[in-house]
Amino acid sequence: MHLHDPSYWQSIYDAEARPGWDMDSPTPLLPELLDLAESLGLAPGPRVAVPGCGFGHDAAELARWGFETTGVDFAPAAILGARARYGDAVEWREEDWFQLEAPPYDAIFDHTCFVAMAPERRAEFVACNARRLRPGGIWLGAFFHTVANPPGPPFATEPEELRRLAESQFEVRHLGPASRSHPRRAGREFLMVGVRRP
Ligand SMILES: C[S@@+](CC[C@H](N)C(=O)[O-])C[C@H]1O[C@@H](n2cnc3c(N)ncnc32)[C@H](O)[C@@H]1O
């Protein structure tokens, strides 16, 4: 079974009622990233996608703040769990992020998605995010530079690796440590704000 395959993730949902990554609440990095974007003069437009949304806490929080939010996850249990928790406040899509057919979004909120992908797929993931955004659209992301159980998933990355991968298609407007991480993740995460080049 492979990370590229939904059955890999589904088997974790089948084995654990609440997988180890699930915080049962939206990440406190969500307001930190939105504040950061605002301080850069980058208010996200209304349509936001959350790839690898899991049980949907971040997507539902974005919807609560008034964004038209789409939560995407290819594991059936993730989407079932998200819908059970949050109903139809979010458009839930049980699909592979790499295959999704959707009009371009204004923003992507990436929390534990990039780092969940196999590292050899990172360039492909960045290109996919660029395709999913309109020109000028924003990629807001939180990433582990240090993981609790190497090698992963999640797989650690470094700010400079992310910059190198992103910058062909994104203008990287911010790259720096996260200050409002969940206590279980404190000191292990960094943030990026990237703007999709025209
Ligand atoms: C580590 S979990 C994080 C879930 C959620 N973001 C959270 O923080 O609770 C990664 C999620 O990404 C999903 N995923 C992995 N690859 C995916 C892909 N190619 N398309 C859609 N979802 C994917 C998995 O099914 C899993 O639910």
What can you see in these coordinates?
With 198 residues, this protein is of the alpha/beta class. It has one domain (6-196): 3-Layer(aba) Sandwich (Rossmann fold). The chain is 30% helix and 24% strand. The protein contains 6 helices and 7 strands. The chain has helices at 6-15, 29-39, 57-64, 76-86, 122-132, 159-166; strands at residues 47-51, 68-72, 91-93, 105-111, 133-144, 170-177, 189-196. The chain has a 7-stranded mixed β-sheet, with helices on both faces. β4, α5 and β5 (133-144) form a beta-alpha-beta unit. The longest helix is centred in the N-terminal third of the chain and has 11 residues, at 29-39. The radius of gyration is 15 Å and the shape is globular. The termini are far apart. The site of S-adenosylmethionine has 19 residues, from loops.
Low-confidence segments, given as residue ranges, are none
CATH topology: Rossmann fold
Sheet-strand content, in percent, reads: 15-25%
The hetero compounds bound to this protein are: S-adenosylmethionine
Structural domain count: 1
Tell me the CATH superfamily. Vaccinia Virus protein VP39
DSSP summary: helix tally: 6
Relative helix content:
25-40%
**What sequence of helices (H) and strands (E) makes up the elements?**
HHEHEHEEHEHEE
CATH architecture: 3-Layer(aba) Sandwich
Tell me, briefly, the overall form: globular
In the sheet with the most strands, the strands line up as 3-2-1-4-5-7-6
